[in-house]
Prior knowledge:
Layout: H1 10-13, E1 21-23, E2 49-51, E3 70-76, E4 80-82, E5 86-95, E6 111-126, E7 129-141, E8 163-164, E9 168-177, E10 187-188, E11 192-206, E12 209-222
Amino acid sequence: xxxxxxxxxxxxxxxxxxxxxxxxxxxxxxxxxxxxxxxxxxxxxxxxxxxxxxxxxxxxxxxxxxxxxxxxxxxxxxxxxxxxxxxxxxxxxxxxxxxxxxxxxxxxxxxxxxxxxxxxxxxxxxxxxxxxxxxxxxxxxxxxxxxxxxxxxxxxxxxxxxxxxxxxxxxxxxxxxxxxxxxxxxxxxxxxxxxxxxxxxxxxxxxxxxxxxxxxxxxxxxxxxx
Length: 226
């Protein structure tokens, strides 16, 4: 089955980590309270949370972008996130069905990944109109954070800051530092809603073609005054 054609604009979703304001760190990259699955085997979560200069507004129309060769699953440590604290969790990234299907993937086109990021976004909807009023981001895979060895052989990246990846299943921890005044709490009525999403985006090149894969999960966010 062919992949859906989605009119994404790279300028809106490929955001250099040097841009935007950095949010002060509000916690450890490993939580002593919520260690999560197989925490002793997880690498340290990247500690930089920033506000991107260009908002990923395509998420308003495409909160989920599937792909037959990349599977994403998000596990957030707490169902309620508080302003002034942290949003922690784990992303489960499976490439080509994992190691169990490695032999079946030998005839597939080469796949490379150059960036993987996690965002928390606040969205206000009124009728058919949608507005993104908040976006915080952290990079899980980039030049400063290469893929784990089970995903990509050492000695990379290859050209254009990309890593050629192989069939694998990888758990990648994340942590987003939240400002005290994150935004209004979630709200739903007949005409208006305010929602927050935790979203993970993988930017890849498969068979020479640029591809974007995204998974999102709705979360509850409260400020310290709620």
